[in-house]
Amino acid sequence: MCLFAFNSALAEEEPVIFDVYAGRYLLAQSLFGYQRDEILFIPVSALADALGIPYHLELAPLTLDLEKTAANNMMQLSEADNKLKLSGVGIKETIFPENAWLKDYVEFDAELFIQAEYLEKIWPLSLEFKYRDMLLSIEPRGFIPKIEAIKRDEYRKQKLKKRADRKSGRFHAGIPYSLLSAPILDWNWRYSSASNSHSFLVQGRGDLLGMGNRWNLLSGNKSDPRLTYWKSAYQVSDDDAQPPLAGYIKSLSFGDITTQSISDVFPYSGGTGVNLSTFRRSGNIFDKRAIVGQAPDKWEAELYINQQLIDFQTISSEGIYQFDVELVSGMNQITVRLYGPYGEERVDNHSVVITPNYLKKGEWGIAYSYIKTTSSISSMLYDQQIDSTDAHLVTLGLGLGLDADFRFNLISRQDESGELRTILGGDINGYLSDIAWRFRGYFTDTAATYSFSFDKKGDGLSYSSGVSDRSQWPVVLRDDKDVIREAYAGLNYSLNDITIPVTINNRVFFKEAISEDIWSLDQVVRFRLGHWNLAVNNSCDFFEYTESLCTPSAILRYRLGGFKARLLHQKEDKSDDYQQSLDLFIPHEIWPEWICKRYVEEYKKYCEGFGLGVNYQSSDESLLDLRLIWSGKSNHFSVGSELNWNRKDGAGFNLSVKGSLLPAKRGGYTANNEKLSYPAFGRIYHDENNNGTLDTDEKLISKKRFYQRGSISDFTNAEGVWMDLKSLSQVSLVMTDFEDPYRISPVNSIDIPVRPERVAYIDWPVIDTGSVEGMLSDSQGRPLSAVHLVLLDKESADQVAEMYTAYDGFFVMDFIPPGQYILYMRTEKEQIELARPEVSHENLWVVVNPVYQSG
Question: At the N or C end, where does the chain have fewer CB atoms within 10 A?
Answer without folding.
Answer: C
